[in-house]
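Quick start: read one record
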Amino acid sequence: MKDYNEEDYLLLSGIQHFNFCRRQWALIHIEQQWSDNVLTIEGDHLHRNADDPFIREKRGDKLVVRALPVQSRELGITGICDVVEFIQDPNGVILSGEEGKFLPFPVEYKRGKPKRNDSDHSQLVAQVMCLEEMLACSINTAYFFYNEIKHRVEVFITDADRERVRASVREMHHYYERNHTPSAKSGPHCKSCSLNNICMPDILRKRSVASYIESRLAE
């Protein structure tokens, strides 16, 4: 994979949208469209405590950093980790202003419960890959905290996970460079999508956008 310039970086959070629904990702990240529903509002509320860049806590051998900016030149993405826990370890990396060495473990906060698809998982893997590139280290473990079940879930990161993220990001850049929004494909996931009224999957899967617009103009 080629190295990207900063002006070509995509948002890391977009990989979750992309693997949930490619059309949803394009509507948000290419067409700049957005609409809140109760799920997105609950998600925003949950992240308020995590995404506080002024909170940096030291708890014994653990340093907790919130809203940590990350990026990857290889992937061409940039974003923010909700929380990164740095655990003191002789095999870790040196951190500015801290004594000793630390191993990083990202923790991503989610409003619901574990999903059947890998959309959340890909976002966490992308965070891991950014941290690995920035800190020149290897990270094999990361975590989700799901608010609905009030439980932390440990995730083991594999090379296969990293390859899937690379493939997704390549496809994201391809769509973005072409300014391409994929066609609508309706399914059960549409019911929880905040962009359902903008996307119009039930209409557009039966007819083209052009024909729909023409019919509306004729009215």
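The first strand starts at residue 10 and ends at 11.
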